């Protein structure tokens, strides 16, 4: 009996030691997270994008995060090439930026849902510009969460999403990297998504394409970091924009302007970032949650959004 009590006591002692070790480990992780977040988003010690060249290129530049990057880069003294589908919207944003920030602007109207045939003309229009910063922001998502077999006009939607979310960033990078390498400096910012950091059910194709963009960025950064280039993957959660269909900011949903100000503060310090403190916090919390729980929560949330969207769609058709 005494031997059993002694063994039980040692077992409890071992469990207590393990528990204390885990507590210390996670406490240290939380402390390091807070210190790093304060340094990143509180002090805002990001590199000056202007040091990479006199011109920047921003895709998807007429709304949301893309427009905010174009404005913030212009505020730092860079000339801006704005690229998006609608020329009238591009002209309006370009005129606004040129007037407000006293920089040069250039617009290139292009439909990124098209295939590889569009990039020869884009290359010609960019030729001769000292492009120091490329922001691959243009993106395309589902109209609302759907099961994969429910996608309407799937050939058009799937092909368009792959062309916009994967091909555009890949080809734009391919066009611009050689001139950056010749000057041994350049900054490429790829706007991926938190939806690409883990599988996202009912947004399967969107999540997968954003995961590609994240891996593309990380691999390129390893390839070219020794050659003076920075390739950054930015993974926002929800931000006020047309893509998210959210029009009001909240604690967890910043405006595009405030988000981009925070994200630019990470340049030169983080090559993979959630972009702002609250999104960084969300990412940290998700990293602690077992994937089976995360899958369940996301599936339940997106099933609810799907049900609501289908109900609204039915009401409109009546």
From TrEMBL:
<protein>
    <recommendedName>
        <fullName>Very-long-chain 3-oxoacyl-CoA reductase</fullName>
    </recommendedName>
</protein>
<keyword id="KW-0560">Oxidoreductase</keyword>
<comment type="similarity">
    <text>Belongs to the short-chain dehydrogenases/reductases (SDR) family.</text>
</comment>
<dbReference type="InterPro" id="IPR051019">
    <property type="entry name" value="VLCFA-Steroid_DH"/>
</dbReference>
<dbReference type="GO" id="GO:0016491">
    <property type="term" value="F:oxidoreductase activity"/>
</dbReference>
<keyword id="KW-1133">Transmembrane helix</keyword>
<keyword id="KW-0472">Membrane</keyword>
<dbReference type="InterPro" id="IPR002347">
    <property type="entry name" value="SDR_fam"/>
</dbReference>
<dbReference type="InterPro" id="IPR036291">
    <property type="entry name" value="NAD(P)-bd_dom_sf"/>
</dbReference>
<dbReference type="Pfam" id="PF00106">
    <property type="entry name" value="adh_short"/>
</dbReference>
<dbReference type="GO" id="GO:0005783">
    <property type="term" value="C:endoplasmic reticulum"/>
</dbReference>
<feature type="transmembrane region" description="Helical">
    <location>
        <begin position="14"/>
        <end position="35"/>
    </location>
</feature>
<keyword id="KW-0521">NADP</keyword>
<keyword id="KW-0812">Transmembrane</keyword>
């Amino acid at each position: 009996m005494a031997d059993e009590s002694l063994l039980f006591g040692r077992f409890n002692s071992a469990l207590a030691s393990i528990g204390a070790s885990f507590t210390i480990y996670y406490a240290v992780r939380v402390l390091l997270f807070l210190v790093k977040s304060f340094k990143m988003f509180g002090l805002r010690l990001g590199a000056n994008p202007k040091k990479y060249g006199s011109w920047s290129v921003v895709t998807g530049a007429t709304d949301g995060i893309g427009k905010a990057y174009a404005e913030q880069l212009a505020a730092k003294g860079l000339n801006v090439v704005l690229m998006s589908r609608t020329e009238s919207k591009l002209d309006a944003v370009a005129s606004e930026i040129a007037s407000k920030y006293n920089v040069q602007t250039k617009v290139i109207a292009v439909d990124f849902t098209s295939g590889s045939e569009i990039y020869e003309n884009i290359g010609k229009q960019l030729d001769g510009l000292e492009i120091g910063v490329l922001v691959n922001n243009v993106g395309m998502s589902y109209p609302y969460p759907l099961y994969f077999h429910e996608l309407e006009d799937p050939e058009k939607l799937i092909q368009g999403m792959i062309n916009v979310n994967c091909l555009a960033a890949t080809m734009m990078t391919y066009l611009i990297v050689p001139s950056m390498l010749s000057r041994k400096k350049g900054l490429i910012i790829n706007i991926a998504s938190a939806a690409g950091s883990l599988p996202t059910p009912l947004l399967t194709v969107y999540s997968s394409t954003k995961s590609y963009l994240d891996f593309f960025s990380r691999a390129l950064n390893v390839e070219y970091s020794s050659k003076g280039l920075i390739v950054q993957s930015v993974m926002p959660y929800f931000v006020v924009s047309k893509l998210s269909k959210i029009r009001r900011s909240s604690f967890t949903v910043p405006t595009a302007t405030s988000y981009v100000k925070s994200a630019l503060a990470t340049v030169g310090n983080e090559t993979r970032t959630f972009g702002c403190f609250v999104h960084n916090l969300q990412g940290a919390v998700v990293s602690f949650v077992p994937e089976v729980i995360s899958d369940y929560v996301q599936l339940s949330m997106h099933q609810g959004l799907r049900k609501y969207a289908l109900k609204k769609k039915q009401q409109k058709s009546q």
